[in-house]
What we know:
single chain, elongated, alpha+beta
Amino acid sequence: MKIGSNWSNLGNNVQKPDSPPNPVVHQKSFGDMLHQQDDKTNQEQLKQLFDKINKQGQHFARSMTVRELRAYKLLVKQFLEETVRRGVVLRDTKGWDRRGRGKRYKLLEEVDAMLLEMAEQLLEHEQGRIQLLDRIGEIRGMLLNVYF
Length: 148
């Protein structure tokens, strides 16, 4: 059986389409969308807490009562705990010391720089009130020392 020479010309008769192939559309996975929505919700919650701190700080400046002080301290504490919890991650790393022995390091890694910047902004804005709280805490400590 003899193979004809016309087999080699089959590839030349194929017509190629003039339009480029359809671009591949990359859709986000469900997990990515869920993570993005969670981040957005967290940012909104922290922004609301930040606004509450500002309002409570104004209330505290107008009427310096113990109740206003407690509410203010609680809000500042909540905000700082949330920013630290969400903005910084503890990472465990292995390395070597000078003598060549293995050593484990615990490193704090910034995850959300914007969140930490927001915490710094709060501390700068509320610095006077926080210093007042510090003085009140010192006076309270002195009173406890005198009493006991």
